[in-house]
């Protein structure tokens, strides 16, 4: 009898063992370095299937800095930093933090324009038979603003969030059913591009530059069809990147400077998109990645 009980216990123990788990339900197994190709495929397929099933074919992608906050949050950050400096006036780090908060507060206008733009796209999103959906990186700053504009228009929007060492959660305005989380930047960028019918880039840092130049390269080389690429804030972009000098040195053609345009307001950016597709009807087909 005791032997039988021991065997039963052993059977239970076996069914609870790590090796007994089904491969697709074993997170530890799927996290092995050798399974990277499988993880890449899963990251591609999960959003792809979801968006396809929901009929999302055409998107307007909005990039920009996570450090561009709303006017209210910008003011609150400056006030908090000023309070800390008053308590510790000799603290150099706190003074630097205050200086940065004041500098970034000047960018709050971009948040409002991104918010207006997200709302404009969502309210007037039908070009022909295709409905345009706002897509962002799903995080704070400009991304939050564009998702917020769509949310305030009563429309759905997509957030393609990324796992970072300093954890970045999704902003609260992304539609829950379209709030995706990625581990691989490369797959995430594929999803930005595959359905994109327009790209709007607000001022930003390395991440924004990476995403912008990815699209510029794909269009320049003919891998992706021509689409409106709109840069918000000409003063910023021409200050940090001397596009004409790249052409002057012969590394791009003069014609490549026509791949993008500058905008100052949400209305101007939306007009550029509608005028582009008035000349070239919007195609809802998804491009090869």
Description:
- The chain is of the alpha/beta class.
- Helix content is 51%, strand content 13%.
- The protein is built from 12 helices and 8 strands.
- The protein has helices at residues 2-15, 27-30, 36-53, 71-87, 92-105, 108-123, 142-152, 185-194, 206-220, 234-240, 243-248, 266-279, and strands at 58-63, 126-127, 130-136, 157-162, 179-182, 196-201, 229-232, 261-263.
- The longest helix has 18 residues, at 36-53.
- It is globular and about 85 Å long.
- The relative contact order is 0.13.
- The model has no long low-confidence stretch (mean pLDDT 91).
In short:
By secondary structure, this protein is of the alpha/beta class. It has twelve helices and eight strands. The chain folds into two domains: 44-68 and 108-279, Rossmann fold (3-Layer(aba) Sandwich), CATH 3.40.50.450; 72-105, no CATH class.
Total beta strands: 8
Low-confidence stretches: none
Biggest sheet statistics: 8 strands, mixed
| CATH fold-level label of the largest domain | Rossmann fold
Listing every helix as H and every strand as E from the N terminus to the C terminus, the arrangement reads HHHEHHHEEHEEHEHEHHEH
Shape: globular
């Amino acid at each position: 009898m005791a032997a039988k009980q021991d065997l039963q216990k052993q059977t239970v123990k076996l069914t609870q063992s790590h090796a007994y788990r089904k491969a697709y339900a074993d997170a530890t197994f799927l996290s092995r370095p050798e399974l990277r190709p499988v993880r890449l495929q899963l990251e591609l397929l999960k959003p792809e299937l979801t968006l396809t099933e929901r009929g999302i074919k055409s998107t307007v992608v909005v990039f920009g800095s996570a450090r561009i906050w709303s006017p209210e949050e910008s003011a609150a950050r400056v006030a908090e930093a000023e309070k800390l400096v008053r308590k510790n006036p000799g603290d150099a780090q706190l003074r630097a933090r205050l200086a940065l908060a004041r500098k970034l507060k000047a960018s709050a206008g971009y948040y409002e324009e991104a918010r207006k733009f997200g709302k404009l796209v969502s309210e007037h999103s039908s070009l022909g038979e295709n409905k345009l959906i706002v897509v962002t990186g799903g995080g704070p700053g400009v991304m939050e603003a564009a998702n917020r504009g769509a949310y305030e228009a009563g429309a759905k929007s997509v957030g393609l969030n990324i796992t970072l060492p300093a954890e970045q959660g999704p902003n609260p305005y992304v539609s829950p059913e379209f709030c995706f989380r990625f581990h691989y930047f490369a797959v995430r960028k594929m999803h930005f591009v595959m359905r994109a019918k327009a790209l709007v880039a607000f001022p930003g840092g390395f991440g924004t530059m990476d995403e912008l130049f990815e699209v510029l390269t794909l269009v320049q080389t003919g891998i992706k069809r021509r689409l409106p690429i709109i840069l918000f804030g000409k003063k910023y972009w021409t200050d940090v990147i001397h596009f004409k000098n790249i052409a002057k040195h012969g590394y791009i053609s003069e014609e490549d400077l026509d791949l993008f345009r500058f905008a100052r307001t949400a209305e101007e950016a939306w007009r550029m998109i509608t005028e582009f597709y008035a000349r070239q009807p919007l195609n809802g087909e998804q491009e090869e990645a």
